[in-house]
């Protein structure tokens, strides 16, 4: 997901967090400063839990730096990865809108910093600036569409097509040889996101390598040599 970055506000220690969040786009310089005054910083170490499933969290959490995994616990004890939050992404709006405790948990995938807003402060912001509530609903709607697309892919597609679609969704850098991308997650997390096993994911990546579609570049780097082939695989052709 791409994020439009607003101008940096030098007057606030939390300016970057506030400025890069699409939720606050359209606010004036002074309004952004007012929002920044409500932000509370939080530092996380890798593996630190942000909140647990069923917790009575009452905060909107915005990722400033790093990455936060949002996952749902399974009866088997494993986790099912729902999504990964990067800088500018936020979570906690569902509890704000519905008043329900989350059925998932959040954990830092790497050292991260957050800006947090108490729901009471968020309610005041929405009352003062209705555009914030509208953007919040737009974000929730976008996630719902993404969830529906993933559900269709799980029902109608196989692991190969899901992996191809995932690789095509990654941001990359075009070179003379192809498109260079970096896997943003460990393979076990990508496997969870694609609803498969790490072993199956490794087999599929190996097959793509042997077919000349991709070439590994370092621990997490990939050079996509044949995007047309990936598009065919993603469509199930």
From TrEMBL:
Domain Cyclic nucleotide-binding: 23-143
UniProt xrefs under InterPro entries: cNMP-bd_dom (IPR000595), cNMP-bd_dom_sf (IPR018490), Env_Response_Regulators (IPR050397), HTH_CRP (IPR012318), RmlC-like_jellyroll (IPR014710), WH-like_DNA-bd_sf (IPR036388), WH_DNA-bd_sf (IPR036390)
Superkingdom: Bacteria
Gene Ontology molecular function: DNA binding; DNA-binding transcription factor activity
Ranges for domain HTH crp-type: 157-228
GO cellular component: cytosol
Keyword field contains DNA-binding: yes
Any single Pfam family the record assigns to this protein: HTH_Crp_2
Keyword terms of this UniProt record: DNA-binding, Transcription, Transcription regulation
Keyword Transferase: no
PANTHER family for the chain: CRP FAMILY TRANSCRIPTIONAL REGULATORY PROTEIN, REGULATORY PROTEIN YEIL
Protein's name according to its UniProt entry: CRP/FNR family transcriptional regulator
Native source organism of the sequence: Janibacter cremeus
